[in-house]
Design goal:
Radius of gyration: 27 Å
Largest sheet: 5 strands, antiparallel
Shape: globular
Structural class: alpha+beta
CATH topology of the largest domain: Methylamine Dehydrogenase, Chain H
Strand order of the largest sheet: 23-27-25-26-24
Number of helices: 8
CATH architecture of the largest domain: 7 Propeller
Amino acid sequence: MRGLVISLLLLISQASQASRGSTESYCELKSVAANAYGACALDSHRDVVSWGKAYSTSTGYMPPPENEEYRMIDCGNVVCCGVTLNQEIKCWGGNTDPKYQNMVTGSIVPTESNFVSVSVGVFITCAMREDGSLTCWSNIPANINGMPTGKDFVDVAATHDGACAVTKNGDIKCWGNHHSHGTGINLEGDFVRIQMGHTTGMALRKDGTVHMWGRNDHNAISGKPADLANVKAISHNHYNPCVILEDDTVQCWGRNDSGKINIPSGTKVKQIHTNYSTCYMTFDDKITCIGSDAITNVPTDKEWNGSLNCAPRYLFVGTGLCPGNKQTGDISEVGSARECRSRCNANFHETYFSVWDEDDAMKCKCFVDCDVRTNEEKYKTYEVLSETVSDVLAENDIMINTCSATLVLTTGQLEDMTTERDTWQNRFQTAEEIEKERSEHATYKARQQFPDTEDQVAAGMTLGSNGNSFMEKAAYMCVGSIMGTLGMFMVTYNKKVASEESQLLLEA
C-alpha cells in the first residue's frame, strides 16, 4: 500500500515538478544555527527567532527580516542567512564593519528565487541553486576566485575566505583565498556532505566515515576519534567538529573552553550546529546551546520547527527476509545499514535490503522486490526510496522524520478520505443492485445465453468474468480513487505527514 501511495505521488508530481537530481540526503535540513555572539532557530511557523548578545541597530546589527518563512538557515561569524519557502536568500546580523553590512543588505546578495541551501562563512557566503549550480558573494574578489561553474553540485560550504563543494560524482572542489587550510585541493572520492571550520575542512563519505584536512588548530584533526564510523551528519563551522551517528547520538571534539562541547553522553539529537558555541535539537524539539553565556538563554516560550528530512533514504519495513528468488548479488559484509543501502539498487522505488549480525560482523543482502517476508527476527529489512521519489517528497515539503518513519495523515484529512470512500462504496452497491435486477429480467437472461461480442464484453465488466466479481472490481476502483486523492492532496497542499496528534494511515 505504501509503495502505491509513493508511486501515485511520483506520477502526479512528475507532471509539474522537476527532480533536483541530488544524491542521498543526510539530515541536512537546518533549522537552528549559532554564530560568534548569538543563535537563531526557526519556530513552528518557520519564522526566525534570534537570541544571544544584545544587538541593536546602532552597532550595525540587522535583525532577521519579518514576515518571511524559511526552508533552512545557516550562520557564520556574525552573519546569518536563510532560504525562504519562495527559494530566495535573506540575510541578517553583521556589525559596524561595512564588509559585513554589505554581506547582509548590499547589492552583492543574490536576488534570484531558485535556491535550495546557503552556507555562511566569515567574509564569503555561498548558495546552491535548484539546478545544482553555485553562487558565492564577498566584498573581497579573491575569495570567490576559481568558483566552479556548471550544474554539478550537491553541497557547498563557505569558510573564512574561501569555499568547497561536493560534486554529484562525490568529488571535492575548492576555491578562494584558502585561509591556511588547503581549500585549494581537489579530492576524488565518494563524499556526500562538506563543512568548513576555521582552518579545517571536514567531509562525510557515503559509507559513513569522515575525512578531515588543513591545519590542526583547536585539535580539530588530531582530536577526531580513531574509530569514528556510522556518521550520518556533520557540523564544523569554527572551533569544534561534531557528528551525529546512526543511533542519533553525538560525538564532538576540538576546543572545549567554556564547556562548548559538553553534551551529556547518550543524548540523541536531530541536528547540531557548531561555531564559537554549539546548539543542538533533541527529538522532543527542544534546543540547547552551550558555550558562551550570551547564547545559552534559549527562548522557552517557542515551539521549534523540528521537521527533518533525514537519510539515508530508506524506510524500515520489518523483520524477516524477502523471497530468495528476488535477491540480487551476493551477501556482503558492511559496516552499517547505510553502507548496505548504498550497495543495493537505488533506482526503483521497490528495492529492498536486509542486514543482520553474523560472526561478529554485519551482513547485507539486496532484493528487487519484497511482497512477503520470512518470520526470522534477526533480519532487519528496509525499503529503499529512489533518488527521484525522495526528491519528490522533499520538493513537496513532505518530511521523513527518521529512517524508520511512519507516514501519517491527520485525523481530519483521513475523515475526508473516508467520506469519499463511503460515497463510492454506496454508488457501487447501488449499481450492483441494479445489475442484479437486470440479470433476473427474462430478456436479459436470453441475451446472456445467446450473447454477441459486445454483450460478452459488457457481461465481463458487470457480472465478473475471469473469476472477478463486480464488487471486487469496484473495490479496486475505490482503492484507486482514495490513493489518487491522497496523493493529490499531499502534492496540492504541501502537507507534512507527521504529527503527534495524527491518525495512523500508512505504516513504514
